[in-house]
Amino acid sequence: MKLSLLLALCLISWHKHLLVTGKDAPTVISIPVKGQKDIVFKEGENPCKVLKKYCKSAEAQLPFESCNSRYHLYVAQNLISQWEKVHKRLKVSEELFIDCQQIDIEDHPAGAYVQGDDFKVSPNNHTGEIEHMLLLLDNVSRGDGEALKAFNVRRSAVKFSDRETFELYRRAILILPTNIFFVNEFGIILMHLGHEPKARKLFDNAVRLGLWDNTMQRPVHKYVKGLTAKPWHDKRDYPFIAKLEKGIPDMREELLLNLKERPQIFTEAQENLQVGGKWTEMRIKIPGYDGYTKMASAYFPKTVQHLQECGQEFMNVKFSAVQPGTYIRPHTGPTNERLRIHLTLLHTGGARIRVGHEWRSWEEGKAIIFDDSWEHEVMHTGKDIRVVVICDIWHPELPESQRNVY
Q1: DSSP labels, 49-93
Q2: What is the pLDDT of residues 92-109, one digit of tens each?
Q3: Please, where are the H alpha helices in 82-161?
Q4: Which of 198, 278, 329, 348 is deepest in the core (most CB within 10 A)?
Q5: Residues 301, 304, 310, CA angle at the centre, nearest 5°?
Q6: DSSP code of residue 98
Q7: Would the pLDDT of 23 be above 90?
C-alpha cells in the first residue's frame, strides 16, 4: 500500500514537472521579431536552445547561421533588460554571453598557462567559499553595498585555482550580467585557460552592449567615457618624466643596497596573476594616503626626494621586481582615470610587456608610460631580475573635481 502511494506521488510530481517545462509551461518572456513570429521563452527553458530551435524552424525565414548571428545579441539584450524578472525562471547558462558557444574547461589547449595543481586531479578546496561569495552577490544584486565589500574582502583573502575561479565568475555573471568587473574576470579566466576566441567573443558582445568602447580597454571598476584612449603614451608629453629619469642612478643605488641588506621588505605580489618565476613589490606611496611610507622614507630617501621634487603628484608608487621565468598573465587595471609610468632601474634584457596589441621592452635608465586599463601582460625570458618603480598619475583630461582615490 505504502509503495503504491509513493509511486502515485512520484507520478503526480513528474506530471507537474512536464506541465511546467513543456508546451503547457507559462511564458516567461516573448521577444518580438520584426516581420516574423515572436521568440517565446517558457518556464525552465534554456535561451540558447530556444534560439537554436527558432532559427532551425520555418518561423525564422533565414538560414540558420544568419538567424543565430542576427538575433543572438538581440535576445541577450532583451533578457538582460528584464534580468531580475526572468533569469531565475529560465535555465540560463554563461554560454548566452558568447553566442551560445559551449565551453569545456577540461579541454584547454596545450600551452595554456593554468594555475592550481587541483585543476584536473583533485576536487575544489573552496567550494563552500564560492557558494558563500555567490550568496553575497545575490545581495549585491539587490543593492546591498556591504555585501559587495564583504565579497571583495573574501576575493582578496582566498587564492583560488583556475577551476575555482572559472566556477566563481561563470556563475557571477549570471547574477550581475552587466557588471564590468565580473564580465571582465570571466573573460580573463577563459583566456588563462586557453579559450581566447570565446573570451574575445564575450568582450565583443560586452562592447556592443555598451559596457566599454573598446574590446582591449576594459577597466574593471570605473570607466569614464570621453577620455583619450590609447594603450601607449609618449613620455615627451610629460616633462616631469625626464626629471625622474635623471634620478634613476640614485634610485638604483638605493635599490641594490636594500636588495642586499633587507630583501624581506619586498613581498609577494597579491594579484594572483603570476605563473612561474617570482614577482615581488614594495609600496612607496599608498593610494588614498598623504605622503610616502615610513619604510620608503627610511630606506629609500633619495628615491622619495626625486619623486617629491619632480613637480608631479602621484596616486600610487611602488617597486615591482620580476625574476626570470615569470609570466604575468593578461589582465586590466581598475580604471581609465589614471596612467602608469615605469622607471626602469634594473633590466639587462629578456623581459617584455604587451599593452593592447603591441609588445615593448624596458631600457635600463629609461621610462615608459601606458594606460593600464588596456589589456596587458608581462613575460620575462631573460637571465637577470627586472625592477621598475611604478608611478600612477591621473589622466590629464580628467577634471580635478573627479580625481577621487578609492
Answers
A1: HHHHHHHHSGGG-S-HHHHHHHHHHHHHHHHHHTHHHHTTTTT--
A2: 999 999 999 988 877 655
A3: 83-86, 127-140, 145-157
A4: 198
A5: 135
A6: G
A7: no
